[in-house]
Amino acid sequence: MTRFAADLADRRPTFLMAIYLDNAATSYPKPESVYQAVDLTLRHGGNPGRGGHRLTLAAGRVVLAAREAVADLFGIRNDSRIAFTASATEAINIALFGLLRPGDRVVTSTMEHNAVVRPLRALQERGVAVVKVAADSRGYVDPADVRRACAEKTRMVVLSHCSNVTGTLQPIEEIGPWLRKQGILFLVDAAQSAGLFTIDVEAIGVDLLAVPGHKGLLGPQGTGFLYVREGLAPRPLIYGGTGGNSSSEQPPEEMPERLESGTLNTPGLAGLTAGIEFVSGEGIATVRAREAERLHQLIEGLGNIPEVQLYGPLEPHLHGGALSFNLPGRDPAEIGFLLEREHGILCRVGLHCAPDAHRTIGTFPRGTVRISPGYFTTAEEIDHLIAAVSSLVSHPPS
Ligand SMILES: Cc1ncc(COP(=O)(O)O)c(C=O)c1O
User: Fold this and answer.
1) Atom nearest to 164 CA in ligand 1
2) What own/partner pairs with CB < 8 Å and gap ≥ 24 does 374-380 have?
3) How confident is the model at residue 395 (pLDDT cuts 50, 70, 90)?
4) Ligand 1: residues within 6 Å at CB?
5) What secondary structure does DSSP assign to 186-240, as a single string?
6) Which atom in ligand 1 lies closest to the alpha carbon of residue 89?
7) How much is the CA Rg of the chain, to the nearest whole Å?
8) What are the residue ranges of helices labelled H in 313-354?
9) How far apart are CA 160 and CA 41, in angstroms?
10) Which of 376, 379, 195 is nearest to 285 (CA)?
11) Which of 164, 208, 348 is the best mutation target for the ligand 1 pocket, counting ligand atoms within 8 Å of the beta carbon and taking the most?
12) How far is ligand 1, taken at its centre, from the CA of residue 85, in Å?
């Protein structure tokens, strides 16, 4: 064993003892089948689409299976419209930089993650107009406000389906069909909703869907994808080898090769396929029902502690996986530190890469304590968290 591997193995017991409530950052643990799929593919893998020998072909089949699994889960009829990426961030960047030009106008909201805010800011500096629709204090974006914001000629609307700060679910089913009728492109950031809610891109009228593989789809980090509706041809963000058409200096016109230059993360995609198989096998409704149960328990338990200030909608049906709270007068960073040190609970504190969302709910600049249960979170773990918060309230720092 190398020193690095030995170090990882040494730290394993402390990982296992912790209560992980940070699934909005990345899901943990993964189903056993995900670890196995990554391991097997890494041991027996060639480079997909690069040549014709058996290991290359086997890798190609892994990628094909991943594309089919994604297409099935998201109602995508033509799986070549799915481009694999390293993250949701990369997918969002391809959609924005690939389709917007100076003079275009984009409508977005005040609940977006920096994965949307920062590329839009960069595009604004290149002459793209960006309009932010204000969400209400629970983080909800009213479709009527989106319609009003689109009164001027608009090229694209960009919205997160579910906030990573408040868990607020946005009414994309209402907004999508309207935008489609207006001929306005709809980019949905499904980082916090994929795997937890049914998203049928064709039924909703989503033109571009950005998804990470490592959150609700239970796959490994370094995976994600962008769905691109037929008829759209974003400019690539990255240029290079795609395995075919090698004589041309131009990238291929066809999807997905157009957006997939460079070697794909085949082991990661094998893990992603296993993650999707797990989610589909359990059924999205079951996954969602289980997380909603934990959320309900959290909202009730924390809500019963008078000092706790909860944010976002408190009805589980308007809510995805993340719940934010604060203890007035206490720094969220201190609460996160004590939750880990005194109670073995791992969660995230601060701004969660979404400063606009905190300005919207009134928690900027310190942010919140964010609790995000996952599929494997137990009722006992949530009870432990509630008891831990209660004890922090009764023992303020002297
Ligand atoms: C709403 C939202 N959008 C985008 C992202 C970026 O996802 P990734 O880290 O996979 O790029 C996140 C990550 O937390 C998120 O919560």
Assistant:
1) 16
2) 374/20, 374/23, 374/27, 374/28, 374/291, 374/321, 375/27, 375/218, 375/282, 375/287, 375/290, 375/291, 376/29, 377/20, 377/21, 377/23, 377/291, 377/294, 379/293, 379/294, 379/297
3) confident
4) 87-89, 113, 115, 160, 164, 189, 191-192, 212, 224
5) EEEE-TTTBTTB---HHHHT-SEEEEESSSTT---TT-EEEEE-TT--PPPSS--
6) 11
7) 22
8) 332-343
9) 32
10) 195
11) 164
12) 13
Q: Which of 330, 326, 323 is nearest to 309 (CA)?
A: 326
Q: pLDDT tens digits, residue range 152-168?
A: 999 999 999 999 999 99
| Strand partners of residue 22 | 372
**What token pair was written down for 42?**
């890494």
- What would the pLDDT profile of 211-258 be if each residue is shown by its tens digit? 999 999 999 999 999 999 999 999 999 999 888 888 889 988 999 999
The token pair that represents 354 in the structure block: 């979404």
pLDDT reported for residue 16: 65
Tokens of 158: 């960009």
